[in-house]
């Protein structure tokens, strides 16, 4: 996964960049289709804002914003939001696929009225009785 970390209005320390990169790299645990993550760190008055933009498979883009007094806390809170979005998206994909598979699956062996079909041996025995 490609990770881009940028800042607006201030210079970000290397430790903050490393912290953000380490945390963002874990997003692939929640959805394997994550291709790129852009982290934008911004300082406003006494608030720090974090914006995460994740590009994933199937052309989907996810965005999470968070503001907090502490930059590290803002990163963590934004990541929590992103993890939730990715988890929900993955569950949604699985749900659609599971429903489609259930609809496409042929019914099990059953007769006209839903009763189970006789085995081959039962049919041969009945034929011998006639």
Description:
The chain has helices at 14-24, 71-104, 120-129, and strands spanning 2-8, 34-44, 47-56, 61-68. The protein is an alpha+beta fold and 130 residues long. Strands 1-2-3-4 form a four-stranded mixed beta sheet, with helices on one face. A hairpin with a 2-residue loop joins strand 2 (34-44) and strand 3 (47-56). The model has no long low-confidence stretch (mean pLDDT 84).
Taken as a percent bin, the fraction of beta residues is 25-35%
Structural class: alpha+beta
CATH class: Alpha Beta
Strand order of the largest sheet: 1-2-3-4
Q: What's the pLDDT, averaged over the residues?
A: 84
Order of helices and strands: EHEEEHH
Dominant shape: rod-shaped
Radius of gyration: 27 Å
Low-confidence runs: none
What is the CATH fold-level name? Double Stranded RNA Binding Domain
CATH architectural label: 2-Layer Sandwich
In CATH terms, the superfamily is Ribosome hibernation promotion factor-like
Sheet of most strands: 4 strands, mixed
Count of separate DSSP helical elements: 3
What share of the residues lie within helices? 40-55%
Distance between the termini: 71 Å
How many strand elements? 4
Counted up, domains total 1
